[in-house]
Design a protein that fits this description.
CATH superfamily of the largest domain: ABC transporter type 1, transmembrane domain
Helix content: 55-70%
CATH topology of the largest domain: ABC transporter transmembrane region fold
CATH class of the largest domain: Mainly Alpha
Radius of gyration: 35 Å
CATH architecture of the largest domain: Up-down Bundle
């Protein structure tokens, strides 16, 4: 709730004016039954057409003023709710970017998307209705009761009985449904997760003919969501009929007592009509309030889910500035007995990793699937924190690096090539916003991407669609490598980022990387032994541990794991 209120502070004026204008509209509405009573008691009784027309003019005036107040209130309520939702969405988006990989892995991408879209929309609608009705509805309800007392004390007791009963019904149903709406949003997350997974992997699903199986999986998740929504709908659906029953019983009581009063001469016909009108106003407002309560229940459930994300604190803390002077020497990256266990995982992904990479060296990382290759290199830019042991960058513990300086020192090319909608130029400038065209072309030359970029009609300004879907897998990989090279990092990590390249292009890329000026340290994660054979040192991983490390020739002679990988790719005894 505090995050909503923080964003609502910027719209304090609108948040006050919206309910005030709605209350003003309600104030004029309360006079309508009295004017109607006057028309009946005086105008119609005395057949005074002039009096009737005068009072009808007053009714029209009250309607015009009421509509003007309503439109003004709608404007301010919409401005406050939409602006507050936009601010909340911005706050949530910014906060998600501060979270580490561990928190995002735990919460899930589909859940975060639901909170950014559906949940915030629910909060926006709930806030809009709240600002419009939280003063108007109570004002009408209690105002009508007070006006009833000014007409007839005895009949006004009916209002005193009906209003508490109606309140119990409305708020009782709200208390029951509020936690259920939270469950609904959770099941909506699952449906969205399955939808997102299917849309992302639609080609794989079709390739393996799994359309029917995935449709059944979606139907099962959607069925659970549907059943819960129906359950909540059935409970919420009781609100209107129950309130109508209470109000109509109250109207019957008013007519019965009013008939007796008219017969005795203590009550006029118009007064009875006014009392019925006031009870009808209460009915209309309580129906509105009932629907608002349902909307508020959904909004509160969604707001709690949003607060849950915003209350999640990043597990990693970075200093604002790197402390101490830069340490000179040969050390680039050092692991000292490093272990890693992912949050929620039962076993360690990395165990007791120790090695030293010097400046200017090329380090290869190889191993079977699930051996921990990506986990190891993800510790270098501090995407995750080691569970135990220590990682040092340039001789300094990684915890003492500020985020900006660490990510400026380490360049990463992810396992999955990811481009963003825009142009080739805008994607490359992610590495360095101030890079010149000459620097961009140099990076493209090094990554072996210059040839196909020159072949594009617009060159660097060629359009890139979302996710880079208008480029092939190999082209995307080369562009992401170029993006990292534009950054001019001291440590470059290529996490299996050349898997889609042919052997000739891969070889040309490795040769270009070897010619990089300065003492840049390169980590190459690959399944191809040929991509790593010229590395200064190769780390061989097996089940999260370093099985051995050394040069290509050393490992062929003594490491069974490396020899098995090598011989599975090349004929035994073949020289490459």
């Amino acid at each position: 709730m505090k995050y909503l209120l923080n964003n609502l502070k910027r719209y304090r004026k609108e948040s006050i004016l919206a309910p005030l204008f709605k209350m003003l509209e309600a104030f004029f509405d309360l006079f309508v039954p009295l004017v109607v009573a006057d028309i009946i008691n005086v105008g119609i009784k005395n057949q005074d057409n002039g009096y009737i027309l005068t009072r009808c003019g007053i009714l029209v005036l009250l309607a015009i003023v009421g509509i003007s107040c309503s439109f003004t209130a709608q404007y301010f309520a919409a401005k406050a709710s939409v602006g507050c939702a936009a601010g909340l969405r911005h706050t949530l988006f910014s906060h998600i970017h501060t979270l580490g990989y561990s928190e995002i892995d735990t919460m899930g991408t589909s859940t975060l998307i639901t909170r950014m879209t559906s949940d915030i929309n629910q909060v926006q609608n709930g806030l809009n209705m709240f600002l419009r009705l939280f003063l108007r509805s109570p004002f009408i309800v209690f105002g009508a009761m007070i006006m009833a007392f000014t007409i007839n004390l005895k009949i006004a007791v009916v209002f005193l009985v009906a209003i508490p009963v109606l309140s119990v019904i409305i708020f009782g149903i709200m208390k029951i449904t509020s936690p259920l709406y939270k469950t609904i949003q959770g099941r909506l997350d699952k449906v969205l997760g399955i939808t997102r997974e299917n849309l992302t992997g639609v080609r794989v699903i079709r390739a393996f003919g799994k359309e029917s199986a995935e449709a059944e999986r979606f139907e099962a998740a959607n069925g659970l969501l549907n059943s819960m929504q129906l359950h909540v709908g059935h409970i919420s659906g009781l609100m209107n009929p129950l309130t109508y029953v209470v109000v109509n019983l109250a109207i019957i009581a008013i007519l019965n007592m009013g008939a007796s009063g008219i017969h005795k001469g203590s009550l006029l016909n118009g007064d009875v009509i006014a009392l019925v009108n006031y009870m009808s106003q209460i009915l209309v407002e309580l129906v509105k309030l009932a629907n608002t309560v349902v909307l508020l229940s959904k909004a509160l459930a969604s707001l709690n889910r949003i607060d849950g994300v915003l209350d999640t604190r990043p597990s990693m803390e970075f200093p604002e500035k790197t402390n101490g002077e830069q340490i000179s020497g040969k050390e680039a990256v050092a692991f000292q007995n490093v272990s890693l266990t992912y949050q929620g995982a039962g076993e360690e992904s990395l165990t007791g990793i120790s090695f030293l990479a010097e400046k200017g060296q090329t380090i290869g990382v190889i191993g079977g699937t699930g051996s921990g290759k990506s986990s190891l290199v993800n510790l270098i830019p501090r995407f995750y924190d080691a569970t135990s042991g220590q990682v040092r960058i340039m001789g300094r513990p990684i915890e003492k690096w500020s985020k900006e300086e660490l990510h400026g020192t380490v360049g990463v090319v992810m396992q999955k090539a990811q481009l963003f909608a825009g142009t080739i130029r805008s994607n490359l400038l992610w590495g360095n916003p101030d890079a010149s065209d000459e620097e961009l072309w140099k990076a493209l030359e090094l990554s072996q991407a210059a040839e196909f970029v020159r072949g594009k009609p617009l060159g660097l300004d060629e359009k890139v669609e979302q996710g880079g879907r208008n480029f092939s897998g190999g082209q995307k990989q080369r562009l992401t490598i170029a993006r990292a090279l534009v950054k001019k990092p001291q440590i470059l990590i290529l996490d299996d980022s050349a898997s889609a390249l042919d052997f000739a292009t891969d070889a040309a890329l490795r040769k270009a990387l070897a010619s990089l000026p300065g003492e840049i340290t390169v980590f190459i994660v690959s399944q191809r032994a040929s991509s790593l054979k010229h590395a200064d040192r190769i780390l061989v991983l097996e089940d999260g541990e370093v099985a051995d490390h050394g040069t290509h020739e050393e490992l062929l002679g003594r490491c069974d794991v490396y020899r098995e990988i090598y011989e599975s790719q090349f004929k035994k005894g073949e020289v490459h």
